Structure formats: structure tokens, C-alpha cells
Amino acid sequence: MKVVVIGATGNVGTSVVAALAADTAVTEIVGVARRRPSLWQPAKTRFETADVRSPEVAQHLRGADAVVLLTWAFQPTHRPLTTWDINVLGSINALQAAADAGIRTVVYASSLAAYSPGPGRHVDESWPTHSVPTAAYGREKAYLERYLDAYELRHPEIRVVRMRTCFIFKRSSASEQRRIFAGPLVPRALLRPGRLPVVPFPAGLRFQAMHGDDAGEAYRLALLSDARGAYNVAADPIIDREAFGKLLEARAVQVPKQAVSAAMAGAWRLRLIPSDESLLKMFVSLPTLDSSRIRTELGWEPRRSGADALREVMEAMAEGAGGPTPPLANRRPHR
């Protein structure tokens, strides 16, 4: 099987490529990214450079059996038309190129964020996917869910799998995720367990996490099976205020979400943090994922807990760790 991974050098992409490279059923991997890595060369893999929005993507799909579509830009949050152009129009360009190339399997990286609000609910794949329209990330994920509905009707010959995943963490993603979610304001030393006696935690926030290696395995199973449709992918446990406090070896104090939201809004408008308050509002409102389907049908089981994955990335952030590809590299030292 020849597989093209679009967005191969990011957090999820590096995990997917590694999982596929270790599988004897995969004979060739083409990793497509805007920048070719110089320090990372997995087995059976060659890298090609292309912007997901460009016609060049089509030429890298020739002769492929399957495509994994992972490309996603979280920034710049101050220019939502730019992320729409990359995430939505770029994904549509890649999906149309896959159909034109006669590819029979498409595995797309959807997200928990595509789901409609359901705080406190534990939902399966039948839950509505209209997200929270005020948050660009959720809005774009929900739009592509609707596009894929029509895409599957137009192209019944293509097996489409939608991977609706929770937060995905691993050591090599630490620098990238710190840039996306925290920016330079939080000294990295404070992320070490035991450094703070008290940590704030937004009221109502409950989330799931999993390790990148487990995400890569989920994608591998989806590719090499006859799976179709959506799969929730998440590890236990649900991380709430108490669990977060244990991770940091601190007392987690509940802070009203309105106060956190106002502080984030002000800091974002002053360009002190990279993410705005709409992202927090969205994640506080979302349900948690029931991943029974992928466990039952594909036999997927995470090898690490969500708490272990979060602990690993936080320790790596404290150390200033990064990864071997341009998106994951540690671009500058932090305090």
C-alpha cells in the first residue's frame, strides 16, 4: 500500500508516519509538508514540499492507494480568514485532488471540537457536529464535516474515515504546543510538577488526552481496515480540576470561567497570548468522547493514559524540548 500523508511533519503527522513505517503492509509513504525535514527520515518515506492550497498537491497523489489529511493551522488567530484559507479551502483542494487521482481511501483528521455543545455529556459518533461557531477552530472543523457529507455522496467509491480525536500530546510536540496555547508569558520552569503550590483551573473544564503514539496507531488501524465513517478516539481518564492538580503536584483552585475568559480576551487583544477566549469557551462547552466504536471494531487500545501523555508534554515543555521537524522544532529558548 502506498500512503500519502498530507501534513506529515506536525504533531499527529510524525506519529502517523512512524506507525505506518513500522507496518509491513505499507510499502511506500509520501510525506507532504510545506517544509522538508532535514533531521528525520523514517523508513519507506520520502518527503515532498507543497502548500495544501496549491495545485502541486495533486502531483504527489499519483499512484497512491490512500491519503491521510492532517494539515491544520492554529495560527494566526488575529487573521481568521488566513486559517480558513489554509484549513478549509486547503483541505477541500486536497480532497478534490484525491478524488481526481482515483484514490480509494481518505482518512481525515476531524476533532472533538467539531461536536456541538454538550457539557457533562459522554457522547458517541452520532452526536451533532455543529461545534461552537464563535471559535474559528471549531467552526472550521464543523464546516469540513458538512463538506465531507456531500463528498461521500458524490464519491461513494471512496472510503472516508473521520478521526474525531481528543487532545494529542507527546514529548516532541512540546515546543509547538507551548507556542500555540501558552506563548512566552508562562516561564517554562513553572510547568515542572511541584513548582507552584496553587494553580488556577477554569470552572467547568473537563477534557481528555492521549499520547501521539496511540493516535498514530489509531490512524494505522483505520487505514489498513475496511472502516468507514467517524471514530471517536480518546484515552482515559477524564482530566478535571483534581486530576490536573495531581499532575502538577499542586492544589488546583477553581476560577470562574467568566474571569478566565475576560483575562484571556484582554491578553489576546494585546497580543500577549496566542489563543483568544473563544477557544476556552468552546472547550468548556464540549462533551467528552465515548471511544467504544474504535475499540470494538478496530481493536484499538491506548497504551498510555491521557494523564501520562499530558505529564510527558508538560515535563518536556519545562525542559524546552522539541522535535526533529520544522513545525516541532524549538525555535528559541524560553525562560
Describe this structure in words.
With 335 residues, this protein is of the alpha/beta class. 38% of the residues lie in helices and 18% in strands. It contains 11 helices and 13 strands. The chain has helices at residues 11-21, 56-59, 80-100, 136-154, 174-181, 212-223, 241-248, 257-269, 277-285, 292-298, 306-319; strands at residues 2-6, 28-33, 45-49, 66-69, 105-111, 122-123, 159-165, 167-169, 198-202, 209-211, 229-233, 251-255, 288-289. It has a 7-stranded parallel sheet, with helices on both faces. Strands 6-13 form a two-stranded parallel sheet. α3 links the parallel β4 and β5 (105-111). The longest helix is centred in the first third of the chain and has 21 residues, at 80-100. The radius of gyration is 19 Å and the shape is globular. The N and C termini lie far apart (45 Å). The mean pLDDT is 93.
Helix segment tally: 11
- What low-confidence regions span 5 or more consecutive residues with pLDDT below 50? none
Number of strands: 13
Structural class by sheet pairing and helices = alpha/beta
Average the pLDDT over all residues and give the rounded result: 93
